C-alpha cells in the first residue's frame, strides 16, 4: 500500500497528477482501521473520514473519476503494476530530480512507538536490524516456504557484528530460540506505529519483500531481501537473493532469460511458477548466512536507496539497480 502512496506523491511532484485524489473512508474500511497510516495518507490524498454524507457522496463519484495507483503509465513503453515503476524510476524521474523516498517519520508515530517500547521495557540499541520472514505457503507442498530456523546462523552473525536484531511478524509466526541481542516481537500485540518506527529507523531491513520491507524502503532504509521471486527488477539501495527454481529431478537452476521466456519475470505470486511445473529451492542455512554476510559488506560501502545507479548493462537489461548475491549473479549469465 505504501508503494501506491509513494507513486501518487511522485505523480503529484511531476505534475502528471494535478491534484490530490479524494479518498473517502468508511468506519469499516480496512485502511481506516490502520489509523497509524492516516498521517502519511494525507501527503498524497485528500482523506475524507468525517461526515457520513460526505463519505457517501465521494464514494458514489469514484466510478466517474477513478484513480488506481496500483498501476502506472509514464510513457508508451513504461507502464504496468506499480512495483515496475520503482525499477523504471531511473528513467522516469531522474530528469525531474524527484526522490521517491520522501517519507519522514511523523512525531505521532515516533512518540507512540517509543512509549510502547519504554512501557514494555524493550531497550532498543543504537544500531539495529529489522528482520521479517514471510512464512505464507503458496505451493501445494508445505515444505516450499521460508523456514525461520534456517536463519538462526544469520541472526548470530549479525549480532556478532555489533547489531541488535528486532524480529517482526504476527502470532502465527514460527517460534525461534531466544538470543542475547534479539528482540522478538512476533507474539506481542503492538500498535502499527511500532513497526513503522522500527522499519523507518533501522540500519537495515533484512528478510522477505513484503509489508515491513515496503515500509523500510519507502522510508529510505536499505533493504536486503531474502528469496525474492519477482525477477522483474531491483530498486536502488536494495540487495537481493533470488529464489532459485528447478524442474523436478533436474539440478539446473532456471536463469533470468529462461524465466523471461516463461512470462514470469514480474510474477506477483509463486503460483505462476507452480503452474509451469517449476519447483523452488528455498535457501539453506548456509546460503542465508552467505547472503547476509554479502549484504552487510555491500551496505558497508554506503550504498543507499538514493545512490546513483552504476550497474553494468547486463544488470540494467533486467532493471536491476541494486545489488545481487553471488549465487543470484550466476542466474544472469
Structure overview:
This protein has 333 residues and is α/β, with parallel strands linked by helices. The protein has 13 helices and 13 strands. The chain has helices spanning 2-14, 38-41, 52-61, 82-92, 107-119, 152-160, 192-201, 211-218, 256-261, 271-275, 285-299, 313-316, 326-329, and strands spanning 22-24, 46-48, 71-75, 78-81, 128-132, 164-168, 182-184, 204-207, 223-228, 238-242, 244-246, 279-281, 323-324. A seven-stranded parallel beta sheet has the order 7-6-5-8-9-10-13, sandwiched between helices. A two-stranded parallel sheet has the order 1-2. Helix 2 links the parallel strand 1 (22-24) and strand 2 (46-48). The radius of gyration is 20 Å and the shape is globular.
Largest sheet: 7 strands, parallel
**Span between termini:** 34 Å
| Helicity, as a percent range | 25-40%
Number of helices: 13
Q: Are there runs of 5+ residues with pLDDT below 50, and where?
A: 91-98
Q: Helices and strands, in N-to-C order?
A: HEHEHEEHHEHEEHEHEEEHHEHHEH
- What is the overall pLDDT average? 86
Report the C-alpha radius of gyration, rounded: 20 Å
Structural class: alpha/beta
Number of E-type strands: 13
| Overall geometric form | globular
Strand order of the largest sheet: 7-6-5-8-9-10-13
Instruction: Report the portion of residues in β strands.
Output: 15-25%
